[in-house]
Amino acid sequence: MWLPAVMDLRLPILCLLIVAESSLGLRNVRVTVPTAIRKGEQANLYCNYEMEDKERLYSIKWYKGKREFYRYTPQEQPSMKVFNTVSGVEVERSLSNESVVVLKSAKASGRFSCEVSADAPSFHTLIVSGDMEVIEPPVDKPSIIGTQTRYRPGDILRANCSSLNSKPAANLTWTINDMQVLLQQTRQYRPIKDESTGLETSILGINVMVSHSHFIKGKLKLKCEASIHQIYHESTERFLEEDRPRILATGSSSGHNPNMFQSSVYDGELTDQGDRYLTMNGYKADKASPPSSSSAGMVVGSYVKVCWITFYICTICTVLLYSLRVGIS
Ligand SMILES: *[C@@H]1O[C@H](CO)[C@@H](O)[C@H](O)[C@H]1NC(C)=O
Ligand SMILES: *[C@@H]1O[C@H](CO)[C@@H](O)[C@H](O)[C@H]1NC(C)=O
Ligand SMILES: *[C@@H]1O[C@H](CO)[C@@H](O)[C@H](O)[C@H]1NC(C)=O
Asked: So where does this one cross the membrane (predicted)?
């Protein structure tokens, strides 16, 4: 413990006076640190407190984790002391004072604590902490991989969005025409960590059956957004075109069961473990629906095709025979 070391001398006095002083003296110590900050940016750490008129400040101490890096003692000369032993902390002396400590460039995440002590006789001491996370945003915008240029209603839109090398891993979301895609239509892969840099790559898959209503003036707007707390927001868009439905194709696509697509998509991904996808009820429901219904859809589809072809052949034959007979007579 580090507190006793600080208070060892004053503890007996504190105990004697605590009854009288506890409701007075020092109170309302507040620490304000940026919860998220870009790596390399200047970080201002504030420590505020209230004190009775008859009390005086003895010292303000700042710690990162358990290690003290800054001490302000107004009665001493010099009143400011900086300890350069804490990694990732470099104090800008000219901008720091009793109420603010300025770090030249944020380097490492951590817990920052401010300890305020009142002067004799109370030596009343309070300590308050705040966490600061140092962010390394990705260099590039998120990228969309795996889309086709054209989709027909009934097709499966399947793609990945990835945001490379950031700390922490970026949060990804998919939108279609600016509407967020349902969770069960996405697949969150585990972030991939580069062990040498500590940076992480996020990947989010999308898996949506395209319908005619997705196309506005023949285009579907697919967007992937990447964000890291309030610090980083970037997005990438793709406009996908609607393929004109062919006459023969309408018969077979109306016979499709949406479950057929979903179960065929999810089956291949079953082997991954610890996946959010697998816990979805949606998956079980899809799995339960008999595959016969989907193959029945295909059989119906091919019957329709056969009927059409037969119909065409018959029509052509009739026309040919008719013209032959007209020619003979
Ligand atoms: C500490 O410095 C900041 C600017 O860096 C200033 O606004 C503030 O008034 C100073 N506080 C004290 C107590 O000197
Ligand atoms: C998406 O990424 C995952 C993991 O890297 C990969 O297994 C999958 O094939 C990708 N899917 C597409 C459509 O690119
Ligand atoms: C990602 O989103 C979750 C939920 O909104 C949030 O709690 C988390 O802090 C976010 N992470 C990042 C790195 O932005």
From this structure: 303-324
Give the residue with greater pLDDT, 34 vs 293.
34
Query: Taking the complete model, does pTM exceed 0.90, yes or no?
Result: no
Half-sphere exposure of 88 (CA within 13 A, CB side): 16
Query: Distance, CA 207 to ligand 2 centroid (Å)?
Result: 11
Strand partners, 296: none
C-alpha span between 272 and 171 (Å, rounded): 21
143 lines ligand 2 (CB under 6 A): no
C-beta of residue 193 within 8 angstroms of C-beta of residue 199: yes
Considering only CA atoms, which of 168, 172, 170 is closest in space to residue 198? 168
Tokens 């979301």 locate to 173
Nearest alpha-carbon partner for 141 in 42, 238, 38? 238
The DSSP line for 89-122 is: --B-GGG--SSEEEESS--S-EEEEEEEEE-TTT
Q: Tell me the per-residue pLDDT of 193-246, one tens digit each, with 9 for 90 and over.
A: 999 999 999 999 999 999 999 999 999 999 999 999 999 999 999 999 998 766
**228 CA → ligand 3 middle, Å:** 7
Contacts of 324 (CB under 8 A, 6+ apart): none
Task: Provide DSSP, 31-96.
Answer: EE--SEEETTS-EEEEEEEE--TT--EEEEEEEETTEEEEEE-TTSSSSEEE-TTSTT--B-GGG-
